Each structure stands twice: as C-alpha cells, then as structure tokens.
User: Fold this.
Amino acid sequence: MRTIDAIAQILKQENIEYLSAFPTTPVIEAAADAGIRPIICRQERVGVGIGDGYARVTNGRPPGVFAMQYGPGAENAYAGVATAFSDAVPMLLLPLGHPRERAGIFPHYSSLESYASVTKQIEQITVPERVVDTMRRAFAALKRGRPGPVMVEIPADVATAEVPDNIVDGYRPIKPAAAAGNPADIQAAAEALLNADNPVIHAGQGVMYADATEELIEFAELTQIPVMTSMAGKSAFPEKHSLALGSGSGVMSRPVYHFVSRADVLFGIGTSFTQHGMTMNVPSGKTLIHATNDPIDIDKNYSIDHPILGDAKLVLRQFIDACKDILGGGQRTEGSVAEEIASVRQEWLDEWMPTLTSNQNPITPYRVIWEFMQNVDSDNAIVTHDSGSPRDQIMPFYQAGGPRTYLGWGKSHGLGTGLGLNIGAKVAAPDKFVVNFMGDAAFGMTGLDFETAVRSNIPILTVVFNNSTMAIETDAMELSHNLYGTRDLGGHYADLGRDMGGWAERVEDPNDVAAAILRAKAATENGETALLEFITNEERAFSHRRAF
Assistant:
C-alpha cells in the first residue's frame, strides 16, 4: 500500500467518518477508498472551518480532519487554522508538502515552518516508514491535554511511496488520559468559595471538552453559586437554568454584569482567563480560583490566588466532594440567588424589550434574534454567530440549551468563519436545527461555500443581516466614508442562495420575521439548505459592551 493508504486506515481505526478537503491531494482518494466521506469545500479556510465545527460538536471524539495541497492550499488554510488554534479546537490537518527534493528551497511554502505558531503540534512524515509513529503521536496530542489543531505534513513523494501492507497492524487507537487536581489545593479553594459572600463560577469550553456539564450543574446546585460562561464556553451550563447568568465576552448580559461586578470570589473552571478584545476582563479586587488543564494559562493575565491544574470533570467532582464534607453532607438553601438572577434579568429585558420587539423598518437585528428565540427550541438547535455586530448582538440575549448547542468563537475572528462551523456542526449532529448568523460583510468573505452545503446535502440555515454597510466600523472609518463611501456594501444574497441551489427568502417586513424563520426551519427539515436575508438597520446599541 501507499503511505496515504496507511494514513486512511489509521483514520478509520480512530473512527474518522468525514474528511473536509480541497483538491489537489491524493489523501481524498485514499480516504474515500477506505470508506471516509470527503466533503469538498470551495475554499480552504471554510474547509478548515467545517472540520472545526465538526470537532466542537463531537468534543473532538472523533476530531475534525482537513486535507489540502501544498503551496496555495496550505497558504489559504492558514486563517482557519489560526481560529481553531486560538479557540483550542482538536482537529487534524493533513497538508501535502513539496517533494523532499524541493523542500526548503525558496520560494516553496513549508507548512512545517509556517504553521508552527498556530498548531499544538506539527510534524512531517520524513520517510514512509515513520507513518505509523507520526500518526500515533498526532492522535496522542489530539486526545490529551489542552485541545488544539495538530498538523502532519506529508511530502508529495512520501504520500505515494510504497509501504508494507501490514504496516498498520501494530497501530492501536489512542486512549485519552486526564489528571485530577491536588487535593490540598481543592480543599483550600472550596473553603474560599463557601466562605465568600458573593461567589461566581466562570465556566469555559474546557467544561464541554471534559463532558463535565452534569458535574457543573450538580456543583452549582449544591453550593447555590451562580454560573456565567465565556464566549467559547457558552452552553457549557444550560442558560435557562435558574442559576445561569448567561455569557460574558466583549458584551454581556445584565445578570453577568451585576453578579461579576460585586463578586468577591470568582471560580474559573475550564477557562483560560485570557485578556482579549473579545473576552470579558475580570474586574480587580477579586479572589481568583483558576482550574485548567494547561499551566500556560495560570497567572498569564491575572494573579491567581488558588491555582489548580487538572481536568474539569475530575476537578469538579473533587469540589463536589470537598464542599459536601464542609457542608456536612447537605446543600445550601435554594431560592434567594435564583430569585435575584430572575429579577435582574427581567429588569434588563424590560429595558431592551422596545428594541427586541421593534417594528422599525429596516428591521433591527435584535427583532430577528428575539423572534428566533421565541420560535426555536434551543435544546434542539445549534447556533453560531459570525464576527462583528452579529456576534455582539446575539451573545448576551440568546439562551443556549445544553452543551454544544451554541458555538462561541472569536479570539482570532476572521469574517465568514461561522459558515464553515455551521456546515461541520450539521454533519456532526444531523438531527439538530443548525443555524449561523452573519452580516453582509461576512457573507462576502465565504458566502459561495453555501453551495458546498447545497451540493453536499447538508441542510443548514444561514441568516444574513443585510444593512448594506459595515456599521461596526462607523467610528473607525468616518472620514474615508464621508469622502469615498468606504463602508458601503451591496448585494441581494437571497438571490445568490437560490442561484446556488438552496431555498432562500429576502425579508423586509418586521412582522414577517417569525413566519420566515419557521418557513426556513421547515425547508431544512425537508432536506434543503436554506438562507434568510433580513434587510436590517445600522444597529449600534450593545448590552454592556466593554463594561469591564
């Protein structure tokens, strides 16, 4: 067999069923021959996004896989890999490399050199005989420790070189491994939490990768501590739970703002506590407990009072046991915290309700988001945003269901990322109603890959907010826009959706928003790839933006 056939057999052993890819790479044919379905994108960045969205929904079990050619293919994929790396997504990347005789000679592009800063691990199969060892190391990196993209570069001459037919006989699927926290550290942190006047739990996506939502719910209910999530961790804690505050990023819900502002102890679990334009900064003066599986994040941006290194699921179980001992086997009285959360949330919604239910024309994006929330069961949907205004508009208000019903992203936030994530999410969860919200600028980046979903029979819904401008850039481009119209955009995206073979509608009447959402949902249930284009205004109001 050839090296790529051995790789395909290893992928099968690791339960890989799908390969997103863009030609030309012989990995596509080898995968198909092994029974792995290729999904061919229209551009590499979206192809990486498909693998990324798939991995987020499966928790990396199995991971997403993307293959591309050397040179332009690897070059075009870079932005997608950077996004996956910044959000710690476990996916395998299989670029071809130039034949070894040309490697390292200017101007040949080297994935090995160029991707080192945006991958968890990167290795080249230098000789065919190393294929099994290299792939074993790759899957070990994918399944243990902090998640992230792992890359194996396959030189073109190595890819088609012959290897013994029995070369993969010794390969065994890699088993995950995880560690718990130091018991003494857990005890001290548990006492700090229970002695706090106003503690808050700050949950990140590490809770989801550890399958620890049930433990988080049990712990919150035991201690009656309210829970907020990071943007990447949104849905790690069901947001309709009585102790849920919602999510905090560059924007946040009122309950997050209210409870974090006065918190004396903040317990970060499965989060990196990264300071970034798209994350919530932690106000000063808090006692910080930080539990994560990667020491690189501890004391990175904040001075941590109680550092704990361990897997979120195991650490939460330790906290549950420690708190039960301290509480004498009982749990705290239910009611007062949940009642305060409900009161603060209702006060906030009352202030926003004129906007959320507005009949103004052009339509405010908040009306679309509100009607979506009223007509779609968040437990049976997977929703993601795109960069810019759609992200900041939907994040605070949308109440996600259980784990992976919302895909939050944004530390490296290229416009158009949400479409690929949406396609991959639907492949991973075909029974879910899978929806991405994007602006017209984002659609301009990747919109032609809507046809990828049509052609591949992947019935997603894409919602486009079309305000014919880059409203988020109003302050940054005031003079240039006044002189040259630099923020103006144009397009009839529903027409494009239909021309690409999908079901599509353009909606201009705010009173038709709810019905249009239900029609689009019915179209996806009928197996059609759907696009809704809403003609919206230049909404620039956001909930507690950059509040901390």
